[in-house]
Amino acid sequence: MISRDCPICAVPLEQETYEGFPLWRCPECQGTLLDLSRYEAIKNVPEKSLADLEAEAQAGFQGDNPQPIRCPRCRLAMAKRPLPVPGFEHLHFDLCRNCSFVWLDGGELALAQLAYQATPAFRDKQEMKRRAAERDADPERKAAFDEAVAKLPEPPGIFAGAFREALIDALFTYRGRYGTRL
Ligand SMILES: [Zn+2]
Ligand SMILES: [Zn+2]
Predict the structure, then answer these.
(1) Domain spans of the chain?
(2) pTM of the predicted protein model
(3) How far is the CA of 48 from the centre of ligand 1 (A)?
(4) How far apart are the CA of 99 and the centre of ligand 1, in A?
(5) Which residue in 50, 98, 132, 133 is a FRET match for 165, CA 20 to 30 A apart?
(6) Taking all residues of the chain, what is their mean pLDDT, rounded to a whole number?
(7) Closest CA to 104 of 17, 11, 36
């Protein structure tokens, strides 16, 4: 593997699996390097409790680095973007416009997760998952759902399977809520 150094401490970054996704972390400043799409995906993982994320954010946070940094991957200058966390917009993450990797200072990844998981959009999704679990526990509803899935055309892409299920799930949820027929 190509060695990647922390853009702040210049020590080698260590690869780890975080919430099921690979990323690189600095053992000194706890900053993380990861692909932008994985950052978006990690925000959606509900595995850690809000209390755990809060503890992680507090433990890892050592201040926002205001200096321009270079992408540890392609060495080009990264662009600063405000962290999309309400109340913490003065913090930044760094984006490489060449390779789409992002650098988050220590604690900022947990902070971004924490903020996102507190939004109504995320809580709605969790509610949908709860309803899906309820549905799966009821053999009759589960059978009707599986039948509806089987009737749909083949998915065109790799994400379509999950998307298709989410779509049907949404339809069933609405049907349950309003008592209307599909
Ligand atoms: Zn570092
Ligand atoms: Zn890059």
Answers:
(1) 14-117, 120-178
(2) 0.67
(3) 24
(4) 20
(5) 50
(6) 80
(7) 36
Residue with tokens 């992002």: 102
| Residue 12 bridge partners (DSSP) | 5
Q: How far, in Å, is the centroid of ligand 1 from the Cα of 9? A: 4
Residues lying with their CB under 5 A of ligand 2, a single-atom ion:
71, 73-74, 96, 98-99
User: pLDDT (tens digit, 9 = 90+) per residue, 48-96?
Assistant: 888 888 888 888 888 888 899 999 999 999 999 988 777 777 889 999 9
* Confidence band for 158, pLDDT divided at 50, 70 and 90: very low
Residue 175 has pLDDT above 50, yes or no: no
**Cβ-based neighbour number of residue 51 at 10 Å:** 9
Q: Is the dihedral of CA 82, 70, 97, 61 positive or negative?
A: negative
Interior angle at CA 23, CA 22 and CA 27, nearest 5: 130
Q: How far is the CA of 124 from the centre of ligand 2 (A)?
A: 34
Q: Determine contact, residues 115/99, Cβ cutoff 8 Å.
A: no
Nearest of 27, 35, 38, 36 to residue 5 by alpha carbon = 27
SS (H, E, C) 98-132: CCCEEEECCCHHHHHHHHHHCCHHHHHHHHHHHHH
